[in-house]
Specification:
The chain has 362 residues and is mostly helical. It contains 17 helices and five strands. Bound molecules: adenosine-5'-diphosphate and tryptophan.
Length: 362
């Protein structure tokens, strides 16, 4: 109880008080074990396609902001992407792009560990061990599996056990906070349940119980077709798509079929929803007035959207292109990140092996 009290008092993060249930005991364990009051944030991105503005707003930006108040562990979820991507050259390219995205949007490799999932192979060991404790029924209820099944897609073993590997990602590194978009909430909840079950069976000190961090205003960014934007739906606006092509994509965002003269409803319009992610409050109010007044076509709103997008993306795009030009620098960052991550992973596995009987008693 002592460390819990100390932890809460010394934690400068407003987020600690507001979004973390005390009963989770996360501070007590994290603080006890590492004797450090640092909160660890962890998240991953699948290198399954070029990053899009759903990734940016739902995860990358919130994750980069967390580096001010936490110790970030961010990684490229290659094993997860492998459930759908089987092209080696594209795969390598997307891994590089994902890493460059974090860096282009300001992740500081001195503060953060940025790494590739596959560089810490212990995650597969932990995934196996967790898997031997998880009922099929729970995995059958996971969204990714259900939607693949509903769509009649090929389902490999990796797709089915996707949430188990994701839980291993989270639990391997004593994670406190998991910044993600809303689509990942269920997976993080599953990780919490697996961790609690494991702690209950083998002893309270094994895993830190994580909490998802989801920003309500960017929880689900719509794609050009109005569904959730996703690499797997082909409805994305790429973060680093060259301006000309990006403008063409923006012009494809679906709207209703109202005429130029008609008054329009900003609150039910995808273009306006996307605009709101990049425009100032004043700009939003101004465009909303033009919607309601009538006399403005959707082409105008789309042009306005393109302009705020381009304004926000121009600088990161330059940094990104510079980084992609020097892949060996990205490589160095990833190797350094892997070394940091691995030292934490080894300690966790030591506890897990010892507790389960895979290793000697401690
Ligand atoms: P995708 O669905 O395009 O394959 P990932 O699964 O790699 O993207 O997601 C990486 C991160 O981006 C996750 O935290 C996810 O929740 C977030 N994210 C993805 N799409 C969106 C979206 N449309 N709106 C908000 N967040 C999103
Ligand atoms: N499944 C996540 C996604 O599709 C990516 C991911 C893998 C992840 N492992 C994770 C996110 C661990 C957060 C924590 O977006």
């Amino acid at each position: 109880e002592m460390s819990m009290v100390t932890g809460v008092q010394t934690c400068a993060l407003p987020i600690c008080q507001t979004t973390l249930p005390r009963e989770a005991g996360w501070l007590a364990r994290g603080a006890n074990r590492r004797m450090s009051k640092m909160v660890r944030a962890l998240t991953g991105i699948q290198p399954s396609g070029p990053p899009h503005i759903g990734n940016l707003k739902g995860m990358v930006e919130p994750a980069v902001e967390l580096q001010e108040s936490t110790e970030p562990f961010y990684f490229i979820a290659s094993y997860h992407a492998m459930t759908t991507l089987k092209d080696p050259e594209l795969f390598r390219q997307y891994q590089l792009e994902a890493a460059a995205t974090f860096l282009a949007f300001g992740l500081d490799p001195k503060r953060a560990a940025l790494f590739r999932q596959q560089d810490i192979p212990e995650v597969c060991e932990l995934s196996w061990i967790l898997g031997t404790h998880i009922n099929l029924g729970i995995l059958e209820r996971a969204h990714a599996f259900k939607s693949a099944k509903d769509k009649g897609k090929e389902i490999n073993l990796g797709t089915f056990s996707y949430p188990v590997l994701m839980a291993a990602d989270i639990l391997l590194y004593d994670t406190n906070l998991v910044p993600v978009g809303k689509d990942q909430k269920q997976h993080v909840e599953m990780a919490k349940d697996f961790a609690a079950g494991f702690n209950h069976r083998y002893g309270e000190e094994i895993f830190v119980i994580p909490e998802p961090v989801i920003r309500p205003e960017v929880a689900t960014v719509p794609g050009v077709d109005g569904q959730k934007m996703s690499k797997s739906y082909g409805n994305t606006l790429g973060v680093f798509t060259p301006p000309k092509q990006l403008r063409k994509r923006v012009m494809k965002v679906v709207t209703d079929s109202k005429e130029m003269a008609d008054p329009k409803d900003p609150d039910s319009c995808n273009v306006f929803a996307l605009y709101g992610l990049f425009a100032t409050k004043d700009e939003q109010a101004e465009l909303a007035d033009r919607y309601r007044a009538g006399g403005m076509g959707y082409g105008h709103a789309k042009q306005a959207l393109f302009e705020v997008l381009d304004r926000a993306l121009a600088e990161p795009r330059e940094r990104y292109l510079e980084l992609m030009d020097k892949p060996e620098q990205i490589e160095d960052v990833l190797e350094e990140g892997a070394a940091k991550a691995r030292s934490v992973a080894l300690q966790t596995m030591e506890r897990v092996r010892s507790a389960t009987g895979l290793g000697a008693r401690r």
